[in-house]
Amino acid sequence: MQRFNEWMSFRQTVETGSSNYEFIGTYDIESIPELKENSDPIELEDAFSLIPEQWKSQFPNVGTVIAGKTMNENQKEIIWISVPEQSTAYLFEKNS
After folding, report:
1. pLDDT: is 58 or 42 the higher one?
2. Nearest 5°: phi and psi at 56?
3. Count of domains forming the chain
4. pTM of the model
5. Cα angle 73-75-78, degrees, rounded to a multiple of 5
6. Do residues 47 and 15 touch, judged by C-beta distance below 8 A?
């Protein structure tokens, strides 16, 4: 199983626009349980207010969507948004 910190070294980045957070990739949430275990839950509306605008439409209007906040190995804040039915987490890292 690939650990969260190992995965961070393989992340990809994209343009963020005016957001304080940048998209760093998607991952199977079940493969990195420490991400969820070491996170504080946050309201979905709060998570959506932090991530780049273009990503908000990626999440379904129905079904379960959950979000959390944690710190990575470089002490940068991570926001993750997960669609449990898809076992997918979208990760966003706070810009410096």
Report:
1. 42
2. -60, -30
3. 1
4. 0.74
5. 85
6. no
